[in-house]
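Pipeline run #58 for the internal structure catalog. This entry was flagged by the ingest filter as a single-chain record with no existing model, so it goes straight to prediction. Upstream metadata was stripped on purpose; only the residue string is passed forward. Reviewer on rotation: M.T. Logging verbosity set to normal.
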Amino acid sequence: MVIKKCVNDIWNDYDKDNSGVLEKDEAKKFVQATLLEIGDNGEFDDAAFEECFNEFDVNGNETLEKSEMVTFIKKVAGL
């Protein structure tokens, strides 16, 4: 599955402490890098990031699990 590989690649790049989840700072680095890749300046509003993070942090534990990232990628891709 393409999405599963994408999520595993994100974890390889951004889960620096190998905890198996992305903490907010790791997720923020992922968002910044993604914005830069699509031609944005990599800057974003912290409040907007918090709102987005909280939307996908379904269990509210202040981290993103791989399953939550799959949901995020599907939404961004329009699936």
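catalog note: The chain has four helices and two strands.
catalog note: Residues 9 and 28 are 16 Å apart (CA to CA).
status: ready for reviewer M.T.
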